[in-house]
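Try it yourself: sequence plus NAP, in.
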Amino acid sequence: MQKTPLGESKLSSSRLAYGCWRLAPASEVRTNLETARTAVLAAVEAGFTLFDHADVYCHTRAESAFGEVLRENPKLRKKLLVATKCGIRQAEEPPGAPHRYDFSAEHIIRSCENSLRRLHCEEIDLFQLHRPDWLMDADEVAIAFASLHKSGKVREFGVSNFSPAQVGMIQRTLLKKLEQPLVSNQVEISLAKLDAFTDATLDQCQTLNLTPLAWSPLAGGLLGDGGKASPPGEKAGRLAGVIAALDAMAAERNVTRAALALAWLLKHPAKIIPIIGSTNPDRIRAAAAADKIELSREDWYRLLHAARGEPLP
Ligand code: NAP
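Structure, out:
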């Protein structure tokens, strides 16, 4: 698979990333390890080099299962970039506490150390703030990031689900205090979720040279071949339209619907990295084929029209 740089850093990732959110759904450690081993090794073979985690995925079991796969395959770590996230705190942890976000320096540093232990890694390549903390203090985030970078625990930092204004605030402080800019903003982008194209997220990524990482690029399976049935409601009609347009174009080109939907994201000049989430080896391989699909401007706009469900002005 072709490579692309992460922001202004020296890190280079495969054009598509593999997301580990669904790696460990079972309560049994052995079942999770089997799922994780099969999916991760299939993704590596298909050319994925960036693996995206969060401490909260499967209540920390996703990081643990992935860490076990790394332990079983000691040569793998050097070939991969390991990304994870922190900042979401579950309800009842500790007992009585509400679901909340926490960007206190203490929580950021402790989360990173716990993730390192679960992932069997000495260093995290990309450490991201998962969802904006309503009490976010950019100075405190910078203190935590400086400490993690200085101690060699983290190479690069990113954010997720941040508005352009929130990215601007953190970036300004990091450049002042750490001289190390953010390299990424991870947001939901797909043919079923177009907000990033119009809310300045992708414009800002190009202005600041941040890499947009697209989560749920197949809308959690709604856009996948043989994927989940569309939920009823307002969006169902638009989704049916975009699936019909994808299927028509996919048949002409002899590619899968999923690969085409991913290639649509790859075409954008902001150099979007879609993070795919299938645990099925055939679907993982099929997704990697997006790297070889070139869309014309006309085809790109054809799919945009279908996704919007209404003409452009
Ligand atoms: P996705 O690739 O849009 O959806 C994957 C889901 O679609 C899987 O359940 C998969 O099932 C199903 N699917 C059905 N048909 C498929 C097909 N033909 N090809 C591929 N998948 C098909 O992505 P996602 O799992 O929702 O999210 C991907 C990653 O984004 C996560 O792992 C995580 O790293 C990241 N994420 C981040 C945030 C955030 O807030 N930052 C939020 C959500 C996700 P099978 O496994 O059976 O194939």
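One thing you can check immediately is this: The chain has eleven helices and twelve strands.
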